[in-house]
Amino acid sequence: MMKPVPSEIEYVYPPVTYPNGKRTICKIPSGYVQPALSKSDYQDLSDEFNLDIALVEAVMEVESAGSGFLLKEASPARPKILFEAHWFYKLTPKPVSKSRPDLSSPVWDRDLYKGGSAEWDERLLYAMEFDEIQALKSASFGLGQVMGFNYTVAGCASVQQFIQENFAGEYWQARHMMNFIVNRGLLGDLKRKNWDDFAFGYNGEKYWENGYEIKLANAYQNALVKA
User: Fold this and answer.
1) What are the distances in angstroms from CA 12 to CA 27, 99, 131?
2) In sequence order, what are the residues at sequence separation of 6 or more whose Cβ sits closer than 8 angstroms to the Cβ of residue 102?
3) pLDDT > 90? residue 187
4) Residue by residue, what is the 3-state secondary structure of 79-102?
């Protein structure tokens, strides 16, 4: 059963500004710790999705972004994101590309990424001024870098709920990944350890260029040894 997100974590827009100048779109209660994935979280995910815990650990090791949060930010940190200008171009009818080609581009362009906190401060938050919801759908979030437009695939009723859960902690971010796997029909491949088909479904047709199928197989074997 999914852990409930603390009710005090609230999506807000326009953004709120902390005393240190950081702008954010979720109110976090004072003293709340955004928890990293724990051994018990892995077990909970294993039980919920009826999956060998070593498989859960392998997927998180290979397919996650390391930490789901911007570790250099003072607590409470914002989730790690990448804003995808080509998706914002597709999702919004407004001619944003004329005034902000760095936010709205007809083609994918690696050079538009700024990384770290700048993905929030110089990209997503500005894009939200043009179109709040479509901007949220145009960014990838958290451990699994699940796109905002996939909020239903991730198990959420709205993109705002998706954002709240990303701010809550890595358990919810990992659950987005697992729901994505289930709803994309990849759970069977994972259970059968069909690494090539799973990597194709999760990472796309060029998965082999980064050796995802090999990384998954090795991570699974390592998880078994540690068990």
Assistant:
1) 7, 26, 15
2) 85, 112, 123
3) yes
4) ECEEECHHHHHHHCCCCHHHHCCC
